[in-house]
Amino acid sequence: MEVRSMAEPAASISYRAVFVSALLVGVVATLAVGLSVWQSRTDAIAQAVRADRNTAGFLAGQIEHVIREVDDVVRDYRDLAEIFAVTSGDAFDGQFSAGALQDWMAAKVRAMPHSVHMAIADASGRVVSASRPPMATPTGIADTEYFEALRTAGRDDLQVSPPIRMRSTGESVVVLARRIAGPGGTFRGVVTVSVATSWFDRLYLTSGFLTDQTFTLSRRDGTVLLRYPADDTSAGRRVPAASPWYATVAAGGGSYRSAVGVFDGVPRWVSVAPLPTLPLVIAVTSPETGVLAAWRARSAYAVTGALTLLAFLLVLLVVLARELRQLAAARRVAAARSASLARTNTRLEDTNAQFAATLRAMSQGLCMFDGDGRLRVCNEAFRRIWRLPAELGPGWPRDAVLAERSRLAKRLLRAFDRVDGVSAPGAERPPTALFELEDGRVIAVTEGPTGDGGWLETHDDVTDRHRHEERIAFLARYDSLTGLPNRATFLDRLEAAALALGTDRAAFAVLMIDLDRFKEINDSVGHTVGDVVLRQTASRLAQAARGDDTLARLGGDEFAVIRTVRASRCADETAEAAVRSAREEAEALAQRIVTLLAVPHRIDGAPHVVAASIGIAVAPQDGVDPADLLKKADLALYRAKAVGTGRYVHYDPVMSEEVEARRRLEAEIRRSLHDGDFRLHYQPIVDMATGRVAAVEALVRWQHPDRGLLSPQEFIPLAEQSGLIGPLGDHVLRAACAEAAGWPGDLKVAVNVSAAQFGNPGLFDDIARALAATGLPPRRLEIEITETVLLENEERNVAVLRALADLGIGVALDDFGTGYASLAYLVTFPFSKLKIDRRFTGDILTRRECAAIVCSAATLGLSLGLTVVAEGVETADQLEVLRLTGVTQAQGLLFGAPMSAEAIARRLGSEMFADDRARTVGEGAA
């Protein structure tokens, strides 16, 4: 036994060495064949490229020689035309006869067998002389590309045209042309020589080109003049700007690989040869398939031989491995059997007893099958979970057990993660499947091999856990209230729609939907009713939408829809038509949504009305970036809400410009707050009894660096929206208190506080600090608010106003009668002054209803012990009527427009001087 145990490791090492050696031989042989094949491929490409470059160089030399010969004639002709100014029919007189010149030209053409025609044209493009007799109808070349290029060039360049048909004979020619210059370089006309394209045809046919090779003559700017084999569609096309062709030309020639052929989409090797003295380039191309055809044939034989050798080697290794495994297994079995048989017999009873106890105590179901597919072990939990019959037990075939389970299972929720019946390689856990039973329970089945050819399964009731996971997955992608996709899902589908734009000419519209008056429902009847309205709204939107639309709730009362239209649905429909269809379908959908959502929601017998405002953005017309499209649809939504209830609006670039303008204005407000560009003007408020100034109202103005002095209407709304009203209001308050502290007497200063400012929890502290910093007594400060302040957070606002009144600060209700406040607010809030809006004062003489409103407001205010101020007084007649109504104070242009701090100080000083003088006169009279 000891000798055998020592020999086994030695044999194992020998077997391992044999395997490693065979593997190394196979790897080395494979690498050698691969390197040989690759080197053969490289040589084939190099040989083909050299041949193409030689051909291109030969053609370049031939074509350059011919074109240089033609160009020399063109130059001579041009020089002759410039010397004799032969660019008009009359220019021949006194020089030589037209017939002699035509004979000279015809002789030149005959001397060049590749040329067929010579001509000269004046500055207007009219042919004034030619090597052939003129046609009955005068000809001209003003409409040709080369004429226009020479007319505008301003320099002496040779122009070569793409193939054209001669008007006289219909023959296909390439025209070489040069510019005729007059005194000072002025354009006098052109000289042309037409070279027959048949010469290039012969050159191509005699150069030994293969069937799949091409020859191209191009300008240096990439414009193709001729391409062979003959291709009428290539002339005039340009080599794409991204092609290596340009860099190769700039380098003086060379070769490169074109992954996608310019004209036929076939991968080609391109050899480029620029003509050194002419603006032309020769290109010879060979398709990669043709270049590598012979290489592929040779490589196939080499690879086949290598694979055959490796196959034989593999077969030998497999046979050897099988024999070695069998030998090793036999030795292990023989050694282990005798050693473990005794131990196994002694432990078997204990193991069986422990195993039976474990099976009974397990909450999970367990069953084990042997290598023949027979059930060997199962516990009671397994039968209970699946509700299997009691007779099911050891000895049952696995197929029969699976049949019983399949009969009770409703559907498979998740299949086993297996490959060819075994666990996936590298799996960290055994494969698990989920089954849903008819009674709704979910059973997790985990299975795995036992190592002896058998199979072990555990079964667990995971109903609660599965439902919890499903709920979590649902909430991650869908709105819990309406069941619609949420914002994250909507953005994913919007991204997918944007990606589809580049594949199938799709267009789509994004509709942003916001519910008008929904906040009123939440505030008046509670969020429970509001949730019902949202669910009914989602149902109506689903009714309006199409099956392939994406409908989502983005949050709150905001919904969105993606409506997609594909141009590929109709063969003759273009991408522009798809955009147009998307706009039309979006409008139809928006109108249907507006109509459906306008129907009152009946909840517990009570009607609740909301309306929809809709913003529409269409891709790709309005953009393709998902975030940008959402922003533009939002801008259109804001515009729809501004227009009115129940409207839909398409995005317009002007909206983005307005947003940008507001952003710039907001930045300018911030800068001006820092630079101190805001000024206060003051308008006097006059006592009706004495005619003296009783108070002044502080009005802010913006001394804009570029636009001059701006009124509050131009910047206050934006300051409120952007949150800058806080620092601006604090600046106005401190400046007004500082100015008023220097005024004589007990004159009051009134400062407007907007609803946005009133939302600041620190408003009271800001006012107290401003009074303390400036030394102004609280009784000389008045805070003016509008009825908008009264509509929000009533309890907190009442507390703030009472605290201000307790401090001695007056509180005035501004613009009375124009808002929605209840008269009960006059009792709830501690007002000391009531200001009647100017729109009633202005029409008090012309409209009885305005006079009645002013009279009623004055009576109401006086009866409540309030000071009543009439705003907007401009005429003495208005003042007289207001005096009769009992108005206490008046304010308007009749008493003075808003003025600077210096001007109001002078006016107050003059009134005090008048009072002192009157007092002195009275004392003297006494």
What does this entry look like structurally?
The chain is α+β, with helices and mostly antiparallel strands. Among the domains are: 85-199, PAS domain (Beta-Lactamase, 2-Layer Sandwich), CATH 3.30.450.20; 362-470, PAS domain (Beta-Lactamase); 479-651, Reverse transcriptase/Diguanylate cyclase domain (Alpha-Beta Plaits); 673-916, EAL domain (TIM Barrel, Alpha-Beta Barrel). It contains 27 helices and 35 strands. The strands form 7 sheets. Strands 27-28-30-31-32-33-34-35 form an 8-stranded mixed barrel, surrounded by 4 helices. Strands 1, 2, 3, 4, 5 and 6 form a 6-stranded antiparallel sheet that branches. Strands 13-12-19-18-17-14 form a 6-stranded antiparallel sheet, sandwiched between helices. Strand 27 (678-687) and strand 28 (693-704) form a beta hairpin. The chain starts with a helix and ends with a helix. Residues 506-653 form the GGDEF domain. The chain crosses the membrane at residues 13-38, 300-321. This is EAL domain-containing protein. Keywords: Membrane, Transmembrane, Transmembrane helix.
